Amino acid sequence: MAVIETGAALHEAHRDNHTHRDVNGGWLRPAVFGAMDGLVSNLALMTGVAGGSLGHQTIVITGLAGLAAGAFSMAAGEYTSVASQAELVQAELDVERRELRSHPQAEQDELAALYVSRGVEPDLAREVARQLSKDPEQALEIHAREELGVDPDDLPSPLTAAVSSFGSFALGALLPVLPYLLGATALWPAVLLALAGLFGCGAVVARVTARSWWFSGLRQLALGGAAAGVTFALGSLFGTAVS
Asked: pTM score, two decimals?
């Protein structure tokens, strides 16, 4: 009895400690991409305008317009992308559902063959496939996981993706504009704040993905700084050519 209780306790401890991050919720990728894109694109846009020697007011209006346009564009794009992907998965699930109704034995044999290919003994594989195929919905879920690589009950939400993308892009794009809104008249405070934001975003992402925080932060800092430098140079070149 003591051995059984000890084993149960160990199982409970393993279950509590052996957890994984939510990688299919549909919020992480658009949130990260939106924040990075907002920071880099709006910083590059504003430095490009500043490089053309345009006035303080023009830079602020450009930054605010870039924030609004980019946030709505990102949200619409994410919603359409995730919704289209979900519709494609549902269409494939309908195909699989029809196959399970029309050819149940063939689908059961297919599942058994899959388990055999993974090292399960043929007799045991056939028995497992037979028992799992008793419930049509369970059979559909198993075939979807094995053949399509998706969980029908855990598909990303288009609305979640759109809202995450909109909010994160707007937040990221606000950083380069914020110093101007607080009274700054030079470009360098906006650049410093945006670069600090890029490093911070990279470091935060590393906390979620188990990547080295300094590597991820420096990588985002380098990419954003390069984009800002190129657009500033182009703005200066075009400004000189036009004038």
From this structure: 0.76
